[in-house]
TrEMBL record:
Signal sequence, start to end: 1-22
Name by which UniProt lists this protein: Transporter substrate-binding domain-containing protein
Domain Solute-binding protein family 3/N-terminal: 28-251
Main location, first listed in the record: other
PANTHER family: ARGININE-BINDING EXTRACELLULAR PROTEIN ARTP, MEMBRANE-BOUND LYTIC MUREIN TRANSGLYCOSYLASE F
Keywords for the protein's UniProt record, in alphabetical order: Signal
Cellular compartments annotated: Cell envelope
Family statement drawn from the similarity comment of this UniProt entry: Belongs to the bacterial solute-binding protein 3 family.
Species name: Azohydromonas lata
Amino acid sequence: MHARFVSTVLLAVAAGGGPAAAAAEPPPLAACLDSDHPPFSSAATPDRGLDVDLARALADKLGRPLQLAWVDVPRRGGLPKALRENFDQGRCNVFFSVPAGGDPPAPRWRPSRPYAVLSYVWAAPPGQPAPSDAAARKARSLGAVTATPADLYLHVQGLPRSPYPNNAALLQALARGDVPAALVWSAALADAQPRPASDGQGPSDAALRTPLTLVSPAADTALGNALDTALAELDADGTLARLAQRHGLPTAATH
C-alpha cells in the first residue's frame, strides 16, 4: 500500500506538480469582445482597441492569464443572444461593451460599474472652435444622423436639422463645412480624419448617453466583486481616461 502511494505521488509530481500545483494556477480572465466595435475592439486588428487594452489591464490587476474570444453579435437577438450563447458555451467569463440601462440583464448575469460612456457630442468642422452648447444652439443648421436619438433631440428642441444617412456622410459634411455644427456619436469621432473640432461635451440629456459595462456570471460573486474593485482603481488612477484618449474617444464622466 505504502509503495503504491509513493509511486502515485511521484507520478503526479512528474506530470506537473499534482493537485496542489493545479489548484494554485489562477483561472483565466476569458474576455468576449465584439468583433466589429471600433474603437473598442475589432477582430481585424486584434491587438488594438480600448476593450483590448482594458482586458489586459484587468487581467494584470486580477493576476489572471488573459484569453480573448471574438464574438460576432447577431443582428437578430443582438447582445442578449450573444451573451447567452457565449456564457452557456463557456467561451468567456466576462463580456465587454454591454450598454447599461437597456434591457434588464438576465438574473444570472451581473453588470459591472460603467467603465466608459458613449454619447452624442457637439462638433464643428476641423480647424474651427469646438462648439459650446450655447453656440451650437445658435447655428443656422445642425447635422445629425437621421432616425437617431440625436435627430429626435434636435426635433424636440425645435433646432434646425440637416439629416444625413449615416456617420460617414455626416463627418464628410462637417469636413466640407456644409454644416457649421453637428450632434455626433462620440465613437464615430475616434478614427475620423480630418477630425472634427469637439471638446467631448454635448447636451445634458440622459437619452443621449450610453454607459458601457462589463457583464459576468452572477454566480461568480468573487469575479464580479474583483472586476468592480479593479475598475474603480483604474478610474481613480486615470487609466480609464488615458485609454479613452489613446483611442480617440471623447471622455465623459462614468458616474
